[in-house]
Design a protein that fits this description.
The chain has helices at 5-28, 35-42, 46-49, 56-76, 85-102, 104-111, 114-117, 121-126, 128-142, 154-173, 180-196. The longest helix is centred in the N-terminal third of the chain and has 24 residues, at 5-28. It has two domains: 1-53, Arc Repressor Mutant, subunit A; 64-196, Tetracycline Repressor, domain 2, CATH 1.10.357. Helix 1 (5-28) crosses helix 2 and helix 9 packs across helix 10 (154-173). Helices cover 73% and strands 0% of the residues. The termini are far apart. The protein contains eleven helices and no strands. It is mainly α.
Length: 199
């Protein structure tokens, strides 16, 4: 916990820098983001920004982490209590797509540089939203509410869902953006068909 006024001011300045960086990315896209533009928006010199963050990539990674937390919170909040496993998994998928559509540029930021963002199977397993899917599948199996295809484990089926939904989100935000309603209908059918394999 920060108690010294100097530490509090430093932390507040870092939060302001991140807020302004997020605004630039939302308004102009990640490809337009630069330290110079950020410095203008914060009303600091570019050199002053480097007193708080060592690089542009450190700023972007901080934003990635914050966006991932928001996505996780959004997904966890979408899981209804007392509903069927398939219905709950569908709600998670819908919530994921809704977050992507409503946060287009931040969603692109999440997936534009996996090396520095720390993308890995192990990191995915630590993600709360992803684990919500794995836990739902395990619960369904324990209660005999669902049946997995024989070649799948709860983890691999959760990855299958994520691959499908992430691919759908990327298509919705890019080449299918002009045909959003038509593609949205098709993607919903694809996700429902995938979940139907659970029996």
């Amino acid at each position: 916990m920060l108690t010294k006024p100097k530490d509090i001011r430093r932390n507040n300045t870092k939060l302001l820098i991140l807020k302004c960086a997020e605004e630039i990315i939302i308004q102009s896209g990640i490809n337009q983001f630069s330290i110079r533009l950020l410095a203008e928006k914060v009303n600091y010199s570019p050199t002053a920004i480097y007193r708080y963050f060592s690089s542009k990539e450190e700023i972007l990674n901080s934003l990635r982490k914050e966006t991932l937390k928001r996505l996780e919170f959004h997904i966890k909040g979408s899981v209804p209590m007392g509903e069927s496993i398939k219905f709950s998994l569908k709600k998670i998928c819908d919530s994921y797509l809704q977050f992507a559509v409503n946060n287009r540029e931040l969603y692109f930021l999440l997936f534009n540089n996996l090396v520095t963002a720390g993308g890995s199977v192990e990191n995915a397993k630590k993600d709360g939203g992803f684990n919500s899917m794995v836990d739902l599948i395990k619960t369904g199996l324990e209660k005999s509410n669902i049946n997995l295809p024989s070649t799948y484990s709860p983890l691999t089926f959760a990855f299958q869902i994520w691959i499908t939904v992430h691919g759908t989100a990327m298509l919705m935000l890019s080449i299918m953006a002009d045909n959003y309603s038509g593609f949205s209908q098709i993607s919903s059918q694809v996700i429902e068909s995938l979940l139907e394999t659970l029996g």
